[in-house]
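User: For my dataset I need records formatted as: sequence, then structure tokens, nothing else. Please produce one.
Assistant:
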Amino acid sequence: MTQTATNKPSLEIKLCAPRGFCAGVDRAIQIVELALQKYGQPVYVRHEIVHNKYVVDGLKSKGAIFVEELDEIPAEHAERPVIFSAHGVPKSVPADAQQRNMFYLDATCPLVSKVHKEAEIHFRRERDILLIGHAGHPEVIGTMGQLPQGTVTLIETEDDARRFERERSDRPLAYITQTTLSVDDTAGIVSVLQDRFPDIVAPHKEDICYATTNRQEAVKHVAPGVEAMIVVGAPNSSNSQRLREVAEREGCRVAVLLQRADEINWADFEGVTSLGLTAGASAPETLVEEIISAFDERFDVTVEIVRTAEETIAFNLPRELRDMSAQTEKATG
């Protein structure tokens, strides 16, 4: 290990790019912030707007109240705006909001909405639908909830794909996927399904979102050349967990998922001279900087940005908030 004039060991941090917020997460957070500006406090949010405690706590401090179900909203606040999270919701949720005469804003990521539309098209064309995803994840619950119960079969693993049996061989078969999966794991599942059912209908365009794919590709590029990898993100963030798994698969001796710098187990990084660092799509850049600062206190740190893709995608805000967005841009412009 190289010692420097500061008597701190040298550490090269390879900083993955792209990392952190994607367009869907950025849009969802903006929706909450602009709703608070336009309608005042409180604004209710059904489920975590994105899977990151730091982000959620920040929005709470501004006047957002998070609930898991609409019936948690007090009757006296029934007229207050309620926002649906970026992960999407079953159709029963907006229907319930309408029945309660609630005003709601939908922050569902447009790329998740694309998967919802695909499911509806397959249903109208009388295809049996397989959804590749993780049971219990809000996005999977929302996608399966677009159609009548029992219409969509969840496939989590290659074994599930091997065990699946068609109820009717005369009905066409189609698959869709959760947007935040491991690209490699999903490719394995799809391969099994296509071997077994050559006529299975695939998405017109890949369902795994561009941000998930780009962040995994960056980790694949960086991980083989470093001794350890940190993914900044929440344990309930699917795309963050997949990044950690990718680093592990690429041979990193230490591959950990951390929410904040105070979670660092320094024993894991004893003797490490090179570190890869990335962040899940719902983790803000300030948490990445916090991790770098923590290492800078113990190591003589140099940072190299390793860029594998450029991201320029942005999504439109709901019509109800575009006036506020324009005002904000004008004030800061």
